[in-house]
Design brief:
Layout (H helix, E strand, L loop, with lengths): L1 H26 L20 E13 L2 E7 L11 E5 L5 E5 L9 E7 L7 H7 L6 E8 L9 E7 L3 H10 L5 E8 L8 H8 L4 E5 L4 H4 L8 E5 L2 H10 L4 E3 L11 E5 L4 E5 L5 H8 L16 E6 L2 E2 L7 H4 L2 E3 L4 E2 L3 E4 L2
Parallel strand pairs: 7-8, 7-10, 8-9, 10-11, 12-18
Antiparallel strand pairs: 1-2, 1-6, 2-5, 3-4, 3-6, 12-13, 14-16, 14-18, 15-17
Length: 341
Amino acid sequence: MPKLRTLAVVAGAALLARRAMRHRIQVSPLWPMPALDEPTSGRPRSRALRLLVTSHEEVAEGVVQLRLEGHDLPRWEPGAHLDVVLPSGLVRQYSLCGDPEDTSSYTVATRLVPDGRGGSREVHEQVREGMELEVRGPRNRFPLVAASSYVFVAGGIGITPILPMLRALPDGVEWRLLYCGRDRASMPFLEEIEKLGGGDRVTVVEGSPDLGVLLADVPDGAAVHCCGPEGLMAAVEERFPGVHLERFAPRSSAGGAFEVELRRSGRTLTVPADSTVLAAVRAQLPDTAYSCEQGFCGTCQQRVLEGEVDHRDELLTDAERSDSMLICVSRARGDRLVLDL
């Protein structure tokens, strides 16, 4: 019996050791090296979910809100967004504007852009209640940072990531919001926002704001968060270089001209200064896959065999950037790239 007890103790200790080792490896796959910090670029892609559209509602002039329902959905924090795969296959990014504690549904909203690239029109005209949509995420590149006080600047549909931030602010914290839009009828969630502000924290501007006057007395240490049209964000960033921004389009895909060799195809292309690698490649290989054309979805990711890449995407991790690029927005740092195409 003593021998059996000894064997049981040894087996139990071995089991505990294996569990401990498994945990350490999960924490740091390179153990005994310490776990690596978060990558400085991108995040691993989330698994796809199929959600049911249970509400398709106009919440302001030209703005549609979607409620997407599922079960045990991943939690999210204010500022997060979803990648939504539309029925046509287009992928678009929409900020979550519902309740982060609700694990049964996601809420997003989008403004109709008549002369856009088709995504918003598809949401407004083709997406209907009862349809299923594939989504990926949530992902958050626009978190609410810890601060003693806050200044928020939103332009139009740019209010969507900021609304959950306002709801999440602790009682007693100082904050104010500058909310700009074409007119009040086109500004979603305006009634709720004015109630949250209590009448003195929210400034509503119809038309172009005078930032020099409206943001003249931002207190030291305040965190500034901004989302809206590129012109508004650029103006806010000029005044506050440390501003936290949410962009759903690259700053610019322009740059110097360069050559791209397609190694497997045996072709060499010139990418003009005002165009993209994707456009040049599709002129020769029209079946090359792409979707968002903004560096978010990853559809156009291609392997890089030679050359240094000027990465301008918002998706790839540091490891992925070592040997691949998103050809819709990224460019060459030098005068030549070689792709495995």
